Amino acid sequence: MSLEKFINQAVSSWMNNEGPQADIVLSSRVRLARNLEDYHFPSLLKADQAEEMIARISEGVQEKYLLELLKMEDLSSLQKRVLVEKHLISPYLADTSAYGAVLLSESEDISIMVNEEDHIRIQCLSPGLQLKETLKKANDLDDAIEAKVKYAFDEQRGYLTSCPTNVGTGLRASVMIHLPGLILTQQLNRIVPAISQLGFVVRGIYGEGSEALGNIFQISNQLTLGKSEADIVEDLISIVHQIIAHEQSAREALANTSSIRLEDKVFRSYGVLTNSRIIETKEAAQCLSDVRLGIDIGYIDNVSRSILNELMILTQPGFLQQYAGGPLRPEERDIRRAALIRERLQLEENC
Asked: Which of 224, 235, 84 is nearest to 157 (CA)?
């Protein structure tokens, strides 16, 4: 494994497999927040303590898992941005943590952030709707680390974390979900408040404070205290199944009542992607969303969903500049984005 591999490969290898409900659910993620006893939270750690933290956690997990250690101080701002775009580290770790690090598996389905908002943020990813399996993977990692260190834990409150909203299980379970049908039929605004009342939240593609590019949303739990990890995951699965049913109904309604308009929208977007000479991030994401919907419905059969997953990451600003070998002006990025999409879709058609 190498830094170049994590930076230059747009699609993590785990993303090449399609999981359950892959036409709507892109991925499942489980994150566990943990802190070590007898240490200040990361924001108050001194440099030598932060280095000790990295060494202890790395040692605790490396005996059982083969992971690559990347320290934030060794990465350029552009390299860190690429890792954020691939969902391997958080914007907080990239921009705020002075002594942060990340441990990554070769397939990139495991990411352990060290000295982020908490001492440890264990993150596991799986394709499609596989929350239970992903939770088991995260718990196995958690057990491997806990065998070597002592966590900050209170019998009444559970795991103690830097942010009070994570106290308890320290669990944040989420799914990345594609909802063009609910957007086109204007139903999502009615569904979101109902989800919030159940203790879950709908966010953009990169989590809190981010936009929902290409009709892709993150749905995750808000509550970490008062429920077990298994119960939180079960409740989230139940909600996701309901949203999937609504999305499928919306797609069927669009195909039945507005078929020619929907087909026109899909192929117009496909035309934009295959012919544009300049395209911005938002427009590219929207067109990719339309084409993905066209693939799912059956309008387009010469492009695979996996290519669109690749392009959603490959066309982000960080990746474009990484491929260019340095910073680009906005217009230069838009020109390169358009060229990259054209070339990649042409290659797919030829194959």
From this structure: 224
